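Meet today's protein:

…
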Amino acid sequence: MVNGLAADWNYTHLLNPTWGPHAKFHDFVSDMAGVYCGLAALFYLFRRGARSIEDLRFSNVVQTIFWISLLSGFLWPGAGGTASEHPEIVPKVLGVRLNEAFISVTTLAAMWVTYPFERRRRAQ
C-alpha cells in the first residue's frame, strides 16, 4: 500500500526535475491507486471480523489487480523498471534484482499461496 510512495518520492520519480508535470501526474495517480487498492483490500479483509470468505476473495482480487497492473508496465515497448535508469538504487541479492517485477511476482505468489489456508480458517 505504501510501496509506491516510498519508492517514488525521490529524485528518480516525483522529485525528478527532468520529468514533466504530466509524467509526475501519472506517477502519483499510480501511487495513489496502490494506496486506495490497499485500503480497499484491508477494509474487505477485516470488515466482518475476518470471517467472510467472500470478503477475503474480494480483497485478494483487488490486490491482484494492482500487482498485475504493475507487471503490465513491462509489456509496453521501451518501458523499463527503475533499474533501467537508476540501477544504483535497486538492490541485487544472489544475482536477482529486487525490482518491481520481483516484488510483484513474489507478492502475488505469497497472496495466492496463503489464500487457501486463510479461506479454510475462515470457514471454521
